[in-house]
Every structure is written in structure tokens, then in C-alpha cells.
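DM from R.C. (forwarded with permission)

"hey, sorry to bug you on a friday — could you get me a structure for this? deadline for the figure draft is monday and I only need the backbone to look sensible"
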Amino acid sequence: MRPRLFTPGPTPVPESIQLAMAQPMIHHRNEDFQAYLTVCHDKLKLLFQTSSPVVILSGSGTSGMESLVSSVMPDGEEAVFVNGGKFGERWGELLAHYQVPHVEITKTWGVPVTADEIIAVIKTNPKITTVFLTHSETSTGTFTDIKSVTAGVKSAFPHIKVIVDGITSVGSHELRMDEWGIDAVVTGSQKGLMIPPGLALVAVQQSMIEKIKTLKSKSFYLSLQDALKSQEANDTPWTPAVSLIIGLKYALELIEKEGMEAVWKRHSRLGESVRRGVTALGLRLFSTSPSNAVTPVYLPEGVDWKSFNGNLKKKDGITIAGGQGPYTGKIFRISHLGYYDDFDMITVMAGIERSLKSCKYPFTTGAGVAATHQYLMETLG
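My reply, with the result:
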């Protein structure tokens, strides 16, 4: 049986990119590698919809988050972050690690934050200079309207910097960094970019860069000061993940060929098709504000996660993601992030039905597949 991956990271890697990364190794301090860097630095601006630099760090998405916390928050400044899941929580863990005074806005998992909630916190905490947000919370499949939140916060407090975890939103949701006034965004290679884990991409607005240049990073390896300086010379401060950057070049070319608007539309269609499929089976969606990257679904009463997941994996070769934190064993998550098309959604829905049947869950056979397929047919371009 052929393995099929439906997790929100790592996501499937196109065959053409796998082959590109398998070519003979090249040295990172010569013109061969710099040619790849030049293309990546240029095309990453399209991905983030920015004219500002996007630095490439060798590390997971969390390394990009850490580079921002350690490089932009000097002593005397405070931050506010939103904890609405495992990855919003991570902003708080990083702020605590670097001893940055901060305020936490705690949200029920599956419910996004609003600008008014953030504004209320800033009003009572005048030392706050920076807001840390999560665009698509992977653990809960929840989308936050970053455009309206950023606009609301900056209208009330123009000096506030907005930093966004776009790790599962970049490439799946509309994101216009310059137009919306976002100061920094981070993503990871193993998500919408469709390459293996190991790269963090950090886009930084010029106003934020000017601030960074006046500070000393609290991190050695993850210093944005060093990364930005090296990028000006079309280089990297340390030995980079050469093969991944080669893969990144080809991934960005695929995205450019499809077009950003088309990429966003594809993810929206695929996400909605999955949501219609699972609800047609009588299953309950987890999030009140669904992400286009991943759909979390409550396990029905009487269905054991280990049995359900085991059936998918062992019988049909399908790997999905389970719940995290307090929802471990209570929800499952289906990814539609990255290298997927209509037929992948029909396939995973068929697998969900087969596993539910093995778990003795009552439903009309084919209902989920039909609902998914019908929506995809209705929205064909």
C-alpha cells in the first residue's frame, strides 16, 4: 500500500523537489550556492507579499520564533501574546525563557482573539511595545483575522509592533505583510512550502530592521542582527541546510507558477471540502473559525483514538494528526496544507469512512466522500 501523509507538518514533498534535493552536494561559500540564495531571497518576498528582506535560518519554525523574541525585545519593553493553543502558548514560553515581561491573553481553544481584547490589555499596560500573534493555530485549526486585528491595534496604538506566527498560514491563507502593516512574520519549510523540516523563514519590515540594528541579540546562533547582515552580502552567518535551500528554490518556483491568489483559493476549497465531508458523517468540527491549513474534528462518542488511527495507518496507509494537550485522544486533525489537490481530499475522506466503519460508528456509507466531492465539483474553476 502507498503511504499517504495528511499531517500539518511535515507535509508531502513534490517528487520534483525530492529529486532536486538529491543532486550532488555543493559548497555553501561559492557562487553555485549563492545563485540558489539569490532566487530564494527574491521569491520569498512574493510568498510574504513584502518588499522587505526575508532571512533563511537553519532550524525549525520555532527557531524563527525564537530569533524574533531574542532579537527585538530589549530590556525595559514588555509584550502581550495570545495563548489559544500549543503554538500560541509557545510565544509565552519563549518570552519567559528570555525574561521578557509579558501579559498573556488566554483564549478557549478553537476561538480566535479580537483586536478589542488586545487593545484593552495595552491600555492598562503602557510598557507593552509588541504583540505576538498566531495566524493559524495548528493545534486547534483556528484562523485569526490578522488583517483586522493588526488594523485595530495599530489604529489605537500606532507605535505597537505586530509579530505573527505564520507557520501554517503562509501559503494557505491570504497574507499581505506590507499592505496590512505587519512588522514580522515567521514560517517553516515543512508546511505550505512543501519541503522537509529544517528551515525557518523570517520576514522583517524595514522599520523593525532599524530597531534590530540598534540592539544586541540575546541569542548567538539565532541572531537576526547577524542573519540580516549576512543576507545583505547574499550569504548566511553559519553553515546552512544546503539541500533544503535548493529544495526551497524549486518550491518557490512552483508556488510562483501557480500564483499566490490561486494557492490561497486552492487551500480554501480543500479545507471547506473536508469540513463538509466530516459534517456529512455526523462528526463535529472543533474550531469556531476554521483554518485553511488543517481541520480538527471531535472523535465521536465510543470511538477510540488509537483504534481509529491504527485502522487508518495499518489498513490504508493514511497518517493523520491527533489532538494535543488537553485534547489528546479527543480530536483528530486532517491536513490540507501544501502539496494536495481535490483527489487527495476524496481519498482521505474515504479513509476516514473506512476507519469509522471498523470502529462500528454508524453512518451512511459514502456520505462524507459524496459531500466532499460535490463541493469540489461545484467550485471547479
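R.C.: lifesaver. The chain has two domains: 15-258, 259-378.
me: no worries. The chain has a mean pLDDT of 97.
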